């Protein structure tokens, strides 16, 4: 064995070598981590990347004991209910795929960890764990012993990530200062002539140029070196490799000229080169930050909440208008949008969107309820105790996308960048060999110019910038898209499945008649109390139809079965409200109706004549390129009406429960169709999640729908063809920007290879190419959007 580095962390041996399992380790910590991984069958950690481990911290781990004090615990964790706690730790040493793999396998190493999720960009890991068996302090120690010490700062616990990268600003400032002064010191070299004073002190000026260039090369450009090194370490040639080669070639040549008194070198050009490249990098970072998909809550669907005052008067307000101390109402199956305290009602909170576990937790008056929990049962009255932070709801919305899905265009971009870099290195080698033979002095400039001008930064920027623009435009037009991948998926859809009730019909506009016994005001108040708890479109219509005072009585044993009905006890009377089958009544009439039963006595039914949204016939005609399917939980009474409205329908199916809808979509997908489901977010949750694209319709809704990919305003449904067209246009725009980026690189290469482009001009052109892509995508998306919407 002749090992020079630690098998686990890859660092060079210092004081000791520890031999274990025919391998050498630099400390007991690295040996212990190796043992833990092998005991838990996680030895392939080392197959992902050799020497990718992190040396465990040997400090006293008692430093984390403060985390278990209630005041600190409440500030650090984002959720804690029963045994389950969620915490997000900042771990700066995360640096490669092995780190991600290990940190996302924590549940294998520690049985009290439920799951862990790494955000590589932010260097954070979110962990769900059993806080009764594994205190927060012990979790922090456990991570530290693995070599991933969390950085915990209470001062910054609730602050958003800074928009500006201060380190990058400092690097740009240093490079700009060096570039300006370097040009000043080298001015006599450019002027030339027989100036005796300059000739006498030229070596001093050249040495000063070297001094100002040194921190630029070895500090300002350090991010390029790190990126290139990690890429090569992981056996991947990324876009920073040719840039690094260009920097070192130019610096080495300049140093050689100054030492040998051959010339002044290119220190000023090199400083300018790095300065302009860093400006381009800053521009890209600003762009990515502006297009961040973890957006502020005002960028998302403006969820309405029902605010109630102390007199019981209700008012629908936007979530962004909610303040600490306000009281809100939450209905059955609705997600609680903000941390609150239970004031009134029987709470059974399903935290599955947060913890992944579907068990309901009962709550009593005075208990704290966390944002993201879903009420299962009767209506609740809550008092808000924390300001709104809908970015947390965003996290819930993206919960199901924890699986590592890479979009097709991202894959295309990455592949193009990878192969393009390899091709550029080949061209550089050939051009270098040619120019060394023709003009040795000029060969250095040619090589550097090729390496710099060919950087495919604009190529990497085109897709996210275009999609970010499109997402904002769609959002302004009440079509709220979860992420960029959804735009690609929408562009591929060829089959549409529409729910009927509440989707192509109005929620609150129906011609309703009652057929049955005379109902007392007491019964109507009780029925309206029950109906208020349901989010089903027919319940919403019926609630507005029943003309009695707005009631708020206590409900016991409330149970709702999605798509069928609900039951509960109000003022000592048990009511069943829903379909004929749910209340055990026979129905031979082909009509849409809600049946009412009181204490096992049938009272009658409310018959609905649905009012369809306007311009549906034109909408479905415009969607002729898609296969249209209609699924309805109602009976076939309105089949003839639908056939007149939708002349191009492939299939109309009625009496469909949520399970039937989900199975129908699965069958379509099995036959090779790309399906978009458009329906009510709560009642069609299963079908929305199963479809390739789930579009939840909301009419002034209090509901938040994590199972969907899109939330859209129901009033805008007739514009759905325009939304789909714009998503397809977005793909075309991205492909055009790919062509523009490649053309720029080809033209730039032609000038560089022939010796007609200096490295400094190449550095200036590099950010200009990115700016040109941004200008093009901005103009193209704006022009295409004007075709469909008022911008």
Automatic annotation (TrEMBL):
It is a multi-pass membrane protein. CDD domains: HMA. Keywords: Cell membrane, Ion transport, Magnesium, Membrane, Metal-binding, Phosphoprotein, Translocase, Transmembrane, Transmembrane helix, Transport. Gene3D superfamilies: 3.30.70.100, Calcium-transporting ATPase, cytoplasmic domain N, Calcium-transporting ATPase, cytoplasmic transduction domain A, HAD superfamily/HAD-like. One of its GO terms (molecular function) is P-type divalent copper transporter activity. Its main location: membrane. It comes from the Bacteria. Residues 5-79 form the Putative metal-binding domain. InterPro entries: ATPase-cat-bd, ATPase_P-typ_cyto_dom_N, ATPase_P-typ_P_site, ATPase_P-typ_TM_dom_sf, ATPase_P-typ_transduc_dom_A_sf, ATPase_P-type_domA, HAD-like_sf, HAD_sf. Residues 307-397 form the P-type ATPase A domain. It is found in: Cell membrane. One of its GO terms (biological process) is copper ion homeostasis. GO terms for cellular component: plasma membrane. The chain crosses the membrane at residues 168-187, 207-225, 237-256, 262-283, 419-438, 444-467, 733-754, 760-783. Belongs to the cation transport ATPase (P-type) (TC 3.A.3) family. Type IB subfamily. This is Cu+-exporting ATPase.
């Amino acid at each position: 064995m002749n090992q020079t580095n630690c098998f686990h962390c890859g660092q060079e041996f210092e004081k000791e070598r520890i031999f274990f399992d025919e391998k050498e380790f630099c400390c007991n910590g690295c040996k212990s981590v190796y043992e833990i991984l092998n005991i838990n069958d996680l030895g392939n950690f080392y197959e992902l990347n050799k020497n990718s481990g992190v040396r465990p911290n040997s400090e006293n781990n008692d430093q984390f004991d403060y985390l278990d004090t209630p005041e600190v615990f409440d500030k650090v964790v984002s959720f804690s209910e029963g045994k389950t706690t969620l915490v997000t730790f900042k771990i700066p040493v995360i640096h490669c795929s092995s780190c991600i793999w290990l940190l996302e396998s924590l549940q294998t190493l520690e049985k009290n960890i439920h799951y862990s999720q790494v955000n590589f960009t932010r260097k954070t890991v979110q962990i769900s764990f059993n806080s009764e068996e594994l205190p927060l302090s012990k979790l922090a120690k456990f991570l530290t012993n693995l070599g991933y010490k969390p950085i915990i700062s209470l001062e910054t616990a609730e602050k958003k990530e800074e928009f500006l990268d201060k380190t990058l600003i400092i690097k740009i400032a240093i490079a700009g200062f060096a570039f300006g002064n370097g040009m000043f010191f080298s001015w006599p070299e450019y002027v030339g002539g027989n100036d005796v004073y300059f000739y006498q002190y030229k070596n001093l000026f050249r040495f000063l140029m070297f001094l100002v260039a040194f921190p630029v090369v070895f500090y300002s450009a350090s991010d390029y070196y790190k990126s290139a090194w990690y890429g090569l370490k992981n056996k991947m040639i990324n876009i920073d490799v040719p840039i690094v080669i260009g920097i070192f070639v130019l610096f080495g040549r300049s140093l050689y000229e100054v030492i040998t008194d051959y010339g002044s070198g290119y220190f000023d050009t090199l400083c300018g080169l790095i300065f302009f490249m860093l400006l381009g990098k800053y521009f890209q970072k600003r762009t990515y930050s502006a297009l961040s998909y973890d957006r502020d809550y005002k960028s998302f669907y403006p969820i309405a909440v029902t605010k109630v005052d102390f007199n019981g008067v209700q008012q629908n307000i936007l979530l962004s208008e909610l303040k600490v101390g306000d009281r809100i109402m939450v209905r059955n199956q609705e997600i609680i949008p903000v941390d609150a305290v239970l004031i009134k009602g029987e709470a059974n909170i399903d935290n599955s969107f947060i913890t992944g576990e579907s068990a309901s937790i009962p709550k009593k008056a005075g208990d704290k309820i966390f944002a993201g929990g879903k009420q299962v049962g009767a209506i609740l009255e809550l008092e808000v105790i924390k300001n709104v932070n809908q970015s947390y709801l965003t996290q819930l919305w993206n919960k199901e996308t924890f699986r590592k899905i890479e979009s097709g265009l991202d894959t295309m971009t990455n592949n193009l960048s990878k192969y393009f870099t390899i091709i550029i290195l080949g061209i550089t080698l050939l051009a270098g060999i040619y120019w060394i033979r023709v003009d040795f002095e000029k060969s250095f400039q040619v090589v550097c110019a090729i390496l710099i001008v060919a950087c495919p930064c604009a190529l990497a920027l085109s897709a996210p910038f275009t999609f970010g623009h499109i997402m904002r435009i769609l959002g302004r037009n009440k079509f709220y898209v979860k992420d960029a991948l959804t735009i690609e998926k929408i562009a591929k859809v060829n089959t549409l499945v529409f729910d009927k009730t509440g989707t192509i019909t109005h929620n609150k506009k129906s011609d309703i008649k009652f057929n049955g016994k005379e109902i007392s005001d007491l019964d109507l108040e009780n029925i309206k109390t029950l109906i208020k708890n349901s989010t089903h479109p027919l319940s919403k219509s019926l609630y507005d139809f029943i003309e009695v005072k707005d009631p708020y009585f206590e409900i016991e044993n409330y149970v709702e079965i999605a798509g069928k009905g609900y039951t509960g006890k109000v003022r000592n009377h048990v009511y069943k409200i829903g379909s004929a089958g749910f209340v055990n009544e026979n129905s031979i009439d082909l009509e849409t109706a809600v049946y009412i039963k009181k204490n096992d006595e049938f009272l009658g039914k409310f018959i609905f004549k649905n009012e369809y949204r306007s311009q549906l016939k034109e909408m479905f005609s415009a969607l002729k390129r898609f296969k249209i399917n209609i699924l309805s939980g109602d009976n076939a009474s309105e089949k003839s009406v639908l056939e007149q409205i939708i002349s191009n329908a492939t299939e109309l199916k009625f009496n469909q429960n949520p399970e039937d809808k989900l199975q129908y979509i699965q069958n379509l997908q099995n036959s090779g169709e790309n399906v978009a489901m458009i329906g009510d977010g709560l009642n069609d949750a299963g079908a929305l999640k199963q479809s390739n694209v789930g579009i939840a319709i909301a009419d002034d809704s209090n509901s938040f729908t994590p199972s969907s990919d899109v939330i859209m305003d129901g009033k805008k449904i007739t514009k759905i063809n325009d939304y789909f067209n714009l998503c397809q246009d977005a793909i075309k725009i991205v492909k055009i920007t790919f062509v523009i980026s490649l053309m720029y690189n080809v033209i730039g290469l032609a000038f560089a290879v022939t010796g007609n482009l200096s490295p400094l001009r190449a550095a200036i052109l590099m950010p200009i190419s990115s700016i040109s892509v941004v200008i093009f995508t901005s103009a193209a998306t704006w022009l295409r959007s004007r075709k469909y919407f008022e911008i």
